[in-house]
Design a protein that fits this description.
The protein is an alpha/beta fold. Among the domains are: 13-42, no CATH class; 51-256, inorganic pyrophosphatase (n-terminal core). The protein is built from 16 helices and 5 strands. It has helices at residues 11-19, 24-32, 57-69, 82-97, 109-112, 118-125, 142-150, 189-206, 222-231, 238-252, 258-266, 276-293, 297-304, 308-338, 342-347, 357-365; strands at 73-78, 101-105, 131-135, 154-158, 171-173. Strands 2-1-3-4-5 form a 5-stranded parallel β-sheet, with helices on both faces. α4 (82-97) links the parallel β1 and β2 (101-105). Bound molecules: manganese (II) ion. The site of manganese (II) ion (MN) has 6 residues, from loops. Residues 83, 136, 160, 188-189, 232 line the site of manganese (II) ion (MN).
Amino acid sequence: MSRIVTRTIPDQHHATLVAQGLSPLMARLYAARGIAGSDELDYSLKALLPYHSMKNITAMASRLADAIATGQRMLVVADYDADGATACSVAVKGLSMLGGKVDFIVPNRFEYGYGLTPEIVDLAAQSKPDIIVTVDNGIASVAGVERARALGIEVLITDHHLPGDTLPQALIVNPNQPGCEFPSKHLAGVGVMFYVLLALRAEQRQRGIYAGRTEPNLGELLDYVALGTVADVVRLDQNNRILVENGLRRMRSGRMVPGIAALFRIAGRAHYKANTFDLGFTLGPRLNAAGRLDDMSLGIACLLSGTENQAMTLAQELDRLNRERGSSSMACRTKRWRYCPASTRQTATPLPCTGMTGTRVLSALLPRA
Ligand SMILES: [Mn+2]
């Protein structure tokens, strides 16, 4: 039985918003959604939290600037979901915009497991990188980092997952690591990588790299950031809303990368009306399908496509995988429900199915007891 829940409206927030010039109705809508003042409604990029308070970020920026200056080779190791794929795209495209020599691998999770495992390090070592940069993973990869060190490969970790008791012996940027004072703890993996690039560009600026020429525009990466942030179902706090809103604006005005444009087209969604539903329920699941059924490098290749034709071919393949995955995850879910004891079935929340928001809706339609 569905139940209508009335949101509570903090009186003081409502009063503040009205005093700041909002209509009582808008003030009520915002206050009910946790907005305390009109400054939280500033979605311009200059309202983004500055990167400086993120632990280790200036050290990592400096290390990356050195690597770029000396032509060292960087290899991005990504996670296999939509956040990982967009984070990988941001890292590869962003680091090369800033002058880096960069490539990526994305492990097949069925063969290599989660995170930067020693097996993945061995695979990575075949292409002889100087530095491995993890995106959306690595905070728990103690053994993998040890293996890389033994092979003489430096590891830089960018992640947003909660750390375990032991941290890997590497330079780590993660707003959720102990001692990190960055005020927002809800950045997705893609957001963390974007912040590292902001810090890197500032470091290069300070070194005079851009004297007399135009700086690379990292804003071009915001459509990736928006997609990964929404698809990873992190909380949309003000900082994330700024990232997402600016990415959506790029999509609506048609300035997104060919890969994202192709995903809109294949899903039959209008990019000029792009919203978070499109990202979470149509684009995200198509990317996740590649990681779960086959190989996420297909999703990353689509995101990084340089031409519309190539992007469209890859988007069609992702769409096909997503349809296959739809039937297999439905079968699996039905089976898992059958094994639930009746008592838990009454109140069971949908089984977590990370990133694939579409299946959450399906699970709510399954029979209850
Ligand atoms: Mn993530």
